[in-house]
Design brief:
Arc Repressor Mutant, subunit A; two-stranded parallel sheet; 2 strands; mainly alpha; 61% helix; 223 residues; elongated
């Protein structure tokens, strides 16, 4: 994640003095590059020590490192604006070989996964899992490009025996949501396909001789 995006993401959770620093950087990123820590502190109305602590909070060693990160990001943004054909995908340029492009894409996608994982609130995530586990059926809502992601999640849930609904029409989404209820699932609430019954019983520690006889491998549970 870029340093400016990182600051934007952290902004609501920052203390008052740190919010002053964050807002000043977001409003004046180019001006910050030419400032010393004392100048920045005076203009932002904070202490120099607050600037150092803020820099460390967003993963920098200090204010100089923060300025370097901002400078690099502004340079990438300016390159894209002035020569979009040379900056096709962040650090990817038209001069890169196919192997280099593939390596850069792999690095960026891995970094995105790591950053996303860091921001997961696992207490809330567990509540979501429990809600799905206790639902009679699950409605997944997505529009435009997110509609494809919603369909993909719906298919994955159905593979493990969870009845899920996904609709593109807004009116159908609202009508479906109004009919949702919380109910502990039983075998009758599932699609009666052998594979789905087997996945459900595996998930809940249940197994029968007929199930184990028909299936010689454990199903993968994907959420």
């Amino acid at each position: 994640m870029s340093v400016l995006n990182e600051i934007t993401w952290l902004l609501p959770s920052l203390a008052e003095n740190q919010q002053k620093i964050a807002k000043y950087i977001l409003d004046n990123p180019e001006a910050v590059l030419g400032m010393s820590s004392s100048q920045f502190a005076e203009d932002a109305g904070v202490s120099q020590s607050a600037i150092v602590k803020f820099s460390q909070k967003i993963g920098m060693k200090g204010f100089p490192a923060l300025k370097i990160a901002i400078s690099e990001e502004l340079g990438r943004n300016n390159l894209f604006k002035s020569s979009p054909h040379k900056a096709l995908h962040n650090a990817i340029s038209s001069e890169d070989s196919l192997m280099v492009v593939a390596q850069k894409l792999a690095h960026e996608k891995n970094a995105a996964i790591v950053e996303t994982t860091k921001r997961i609130n696992f207490a809330i995530f567990q509540q979501v899992v429990d809600a799905i586990d206790n639902a009679q059926r699950v409605q997944i809502v997505g529009i435009w490009g997110s509609g494809l992601t919603a369909k993909d999640l719906s298919y994955k849930l159905q593979k493990i025996g969870i009845l899920s609904l996904v609709e593109a029409d807004l009116h159908v989404q609202i009508a479906t949501a109004q009919a949702l209820t919380a109910k502990r699932r039983t075998n009758r609430d599932f699609f009666q396909w052998p594979q789905e019954r087997y996945a459900y019983r595996r998930l809940h520690g249940k197994s029968t001789g007929s199930d184990s006889g028909r299936h010689n491998r454990q199903q993968k549970i994907i959420l």
